[in-house]
Specification:
This protein has 16 helices and 16 strands. With 448 residues, it is of the alpha/beta class. The chain has two domains: 319 residues, Rossmann fold (3-Layer(aba) Sandwich), CATH 3.40.50; 120 residues, CBS-domain (Roll), CATH 3.10.580. The protein binds pyridoxal-5'-phosphate.
Length: 448
């Protein structure tokens, strides 16, 4: 019989897979190290197990103790898995932006979950890091993992991920690209690979809104670089001790929108940070020769992001869709729903109530003939300024001219032209006999 005694014996030894499409595009061999093949579906399984074993050896935690970590999800999930297998209590402190799936998985593995606001500096008392640290102070026999500073984090990669990459490529790896959060992966893997061959180039991927690239280039921590972004597990707002810049050859910054999907092209359902790595590889095309072997690291599995990058509505809401809009219908949020209107005989107060209820800034006016006018915030604002009793006035007395109407197959350029000419919205006659509306903000979401 061949079986593992516990799940902990099944960590690592993940497969390396050639990316056919990307290899053609970059005209070299592009491989992905698929860390989603770890038992809890991310690279952090290696780190969690290694860090806990060391904490046990150093008596930082004893039987029945509590593991506490501030985590972007994956480290918490791996720690929760290891904690369950070894009988420890686990508390994960997450920031709001982590996907719902990650929170549910943590709970399923028996972890307690505390959610803090996103994008705060660790010195801020409300940040996940500060909350986890306070919890540790208050909880007897607890161990605060602190993966950003814990030296066992890069060591786990130095001892397992790095050697696996070297062996799987038969020592032919020339470039390594990975996202940076704690810095554990890039520092540990790069140290091992560069000891084997100092010519190997290591590239880190950071997010717009994070400070790591600037720190790498200037040694400065510029808090003006900090702003919120969506990609999980990429970048941070402080410099982690585990980010060893001397082992890194260059950094790329990606936008949230650059997250690409390998699922449809290669059958690989991977997490959002590999999308950032792929975008970085595409940007670095000029760096690679035909004989090069570029290894990309995929940190986690796509099922962790079913409500995010793999959800078309979410992608559209965030303005991340890659399908360019071609005709008017592509800009309509809900083509199956009729546009919200107000009748000429209704009062200004009705229009205001409807605009508030549906959170819209303009509303078309209809009578028996169809669309005959429009009301927008500016028209209402000036009406109220003139006379506060205007709320009882019929719409017909304050409305502006009707929004222009186009067909659903009208090219997008014509719609943009109408908005450019000062119309705050454009109506669209749909083939289902309903009408849609395209507002300035729909256009902005599309072009951002
Ligand atoms: C999805 C994801 N990608 C990338 C990383 C970055 O890895 P590291 O912390 O080793 O820098 C993390 C780490 O939290 C992650 O969760």
């Amino acid at each position: 019989m061949r079986y593992a005694n516990t799940v902990l014996e099944t960590l690592g030894n993940t497969p390396m897979i050639k990316l056919q499409g990307l290899s053609k595009m970059l005209d070299c061999t592009v491989l992905v190290k698929n860390e989603a093949a770890n038992p809890s579906l991310s690279i952090k399984d290696r780190v969690a197990n290694y860090m806990l074993e060391k904490a046990e050896q150093d008596q930082k935690i004893k039987s029945g103790g509590t593991i506490i970590e501030a985590t972007s999800g994956n480290a918490g999930i791996s720690l929760a898995m290891v904690a369950a297998a070894k009988g420890y209590r686990m508390i994960s402190v997450l920031s709001e932006k982590q996907s719902q799936e990650k929170k549910e998985i943590l709970k399923a593995l028996g972890s307690e979950v505390i959610v803090c606001p996103s994008d705060l500096h660790p010195n801020d008392a409300r940040s996940a890091y500060a909350v986890a640290s306070r919890l540790h102070d208050r909880t007897p026999n607890s161990w605060f993992v602190s993966q950003h500073n814990n030296k066992c984090n890069p060591l786990a990669h130095y001892e397992s991920t790095g050697p696996e990459i070297w062996e799987q490529t038969d020592g032919q790896v020339t470039h390594f690209i990975t996202t940076v959060n704690t810095g554990g992966t890039i520092s540990g893997v790069s140290k091992f690979l560069k000891e084997k061959n100092p010519n190997i180039k290591s590239w880190g991927v950071d997010a717009y809104g994070s400070i790591l690239k600037k720190y790498f280039e200037t040694g400065l921590t510029d808090l003006n670089e900090v702003y919120p972004y969506e990609t999980e597990g990429v970048g941070v707002h402080f410099v982690p001790e585990n980010f060893n810049v001397s082992l890194v050859d260059g950094m790329q910054k990606i936008t949230d929108r650059d997250t690409k999907k390998l699922a449809k092209e290669e059958g690989l359902l991977l997490g959002n940070s590999v999308g950032a790595v792929i975008k970085a590889a595409l940007n670095l095309k000029d760096q690679f020769n035909k004989e090069d072997t570029v290894v990309l690291l995929a940190n986690d599995h796509g099922t962790r992001y079913l409500s995010k990058v793999y959800n078309e509505d979410w992608m559209q809401q965030k303005g991340f869709t890659e399908q360019p809009a071609r005709t008017a219908i592509d800009l309509i949020k809900n083509p199956d729903e009729d546009v919200i209107t107000v009748k000429t005989s209704e009062l200004v107060s009705h229009a205001v109530g409807r605009m508030r209820k549906f959170k819209i800034s303009q509303i078309p006016v209809v009578d028996k003939q169809g669309f005959v006018g429009s009301i927008d915030e500016m028209a209402l604002f000036s009406a109220y300024l003139d006379d506060h009793r205007k709320s009882d006035t019929p719409i017909s007395e304050v409305m502006n001219k009707s929004f222009p109407m186009v067909q659903e197959f009208t090219p997008i350029e014509e719609v943009l032209d109408l908005i450019r000419k000062g119309n705050s919205a454009v109506l669209v006659a749909l083939e289902n006999e309903k009408h849609g509306i395209i507002t300035k903000s729909d256009v902005l979401t599309h072009i951002q």
